[in-house]
Amino acid sequence: GAGVSQSPSNKVTEKGKDVELRCDPISGHTALYWYRQSLGQGLEFLIYFQGNSAPDKSGLPSDRFSAERTGGSVSTLTIQRTQQEDSAVYLCASSFRGALLFEQYFGPGTRLTVT
Amino acid sequence: GNSVTQMEGPVTLSEEAFLTINCTYTATGYPSLFWYVQYPGEGLQLLLKATKADDKGSNKGFEATYRKETTSFHLEKGSVQVSDSAVYFCASGGQAGTALIFGKGTTLSVSS
User: Rounded to whole angstroms, what are the CA distances from A37 to A4, A79, A109, B71?
Assistant: First the structure.
């Protein structure tokens, strides 16, 4: 079946512009996560959605970052006024439920380059 | 806060060599522990996991044992193959019990 998909796969933007990154989770998965993979820094948790509950935004690095999840499915991560330090691969993952006993399935990521 | 530390790479081995990638964690309580693998050009995949102390996760010839006394979850494989070349990430359950906390990743390169 279809896995987690993300778009675009690559995005190059100028410093100061806003960008939107999209994630389509696996159908039926209620939990959705965004992570950021920076060179030499590993993966960093950004935000987590579980069903209709308020999202856990504790990992967002600044108020320039926000995310929405519409209809409990597709999610959009928005970065406003991008900075060069925002350059990274942004990964989305989903799981059947928001508990660690359930495997998180990762998408291929969006590589963001801020020039 | 919680954290995961894994050995820095790259690790370069010949085919059929023994592999160990060290991973230690700090956490309040007893998190679940995971190894994820990222093959070239692909997304992260769960390799194995352990949910409580002394559990051993295993998959594709890889093993890791949850050691509470040493707060470790070292990844081992007795005989690596060229196809094992990838980046390996150790991860633990976060404080909220939801998001994962990852190590920085270890690149493994296996030559024939």
Answer: 17, 15, 9, 25
Contact A59, A47 (CB under 8 A): yes
- Cβ <8 Å between B98 and A59: no
The reply to whether omega before A8 is within 30° of 0 (cis) is yes
Q: Which 3 state secondary structure label does DSSP give A65?
A: strand
Q: What is the mean pLDDT of residues B68-89?
A: 96
Contact call for B43 and A59, based on CB within 8 A: no
Confidence of residue B64 (pLDDT cuts 50, 70, 90): very high
Question: If you measure CA to CA, which chain B residue comes closest to A39?
Answer: B104
Task: Please report the pLDDT score of residue B95 as a whole number.
Answer: 46
For residue A32, the chain B residue with the least C-alpha distance is B99
Q: Is B16 or A29 the better-scoring residue by pLDDT?
A: B16
Contact B42 A108 (CB under 8 A): yes
